């Protein structure tokens, strides 16, 4: 039984998020997802998420491919999260390539190719543009 873990904000849930989570689950038997807290997201991306952490957590928890969720409070606690969850594999999108190689001593680190042409940021931009064109 292999435990896979991944981390992310998963704000304004989209198909790139779903593909990443489904492929992550296929690498093992259990998928655990650490959802960035609102405070961590502000620190990491310098913006407030559209959906608060409890809503993002509820959405991810409801997916068939996800077995467990928790709130990730701090990037510095990543090693603890991996150890406490007994993770065999850490999965991240390839926008993070190389950034988590330090954890290769306690688990396998795999970077999956991002789904092209979609991101939370681009969706928000499209919505903003549409709003402007209706004025
Ligand atoms: N992801 C992906 N393909 C995409 C977008 C995201 O595989 N098109 C992956 C990321 O690589 C990450 C996880 O989904 O492992 C969560 O990404 P997140 O940062 O929450 O999503 P983004 O859409 O990249 O958000 P933003 O635009 O705010 O950076």
TrEMBL record:
This is Glycerol-3-phosphate cytidylyltransferase. Keywords: Nucleotidyltransferase, Transferase. Coiled coil: none annotated. NCBIfam families: cyt_tran_rel (TIGR00125). One of its GO terms (molecular function) is nucleotidyltransferase activity. Residues 5-125 form the Cytidyltransferase-like domain.
């Amino acid at each position: 039984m292999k435990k896979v873990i991944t981390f992310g904000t998963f704000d304004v849930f989209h198909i790139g998020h779903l593909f990443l989570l489904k492929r992550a689950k296929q690498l093992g038997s259990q998928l655990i997802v650490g959802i960035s807290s609102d405070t961590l997201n502000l620190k990491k991306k310098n913006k407030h998420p559209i959906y608060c952490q409890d809503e993002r957590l509820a959405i991810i928890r409801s997916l068939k491919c996800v077995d467990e969720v928790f709130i990730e409070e701090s990037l510095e606690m990543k090693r603890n999260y991996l150890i406490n969850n007994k993770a065999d594999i850490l999965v991240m999108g390839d926008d993070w390539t190389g950034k988590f190689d330090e954890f290769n001593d306690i688990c396998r680190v795999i970077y999956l190719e991002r789904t092209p042409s979609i991101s939370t940021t681009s969706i928000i931009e499209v919505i903003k543009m549409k709003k402007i064109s209706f004025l």
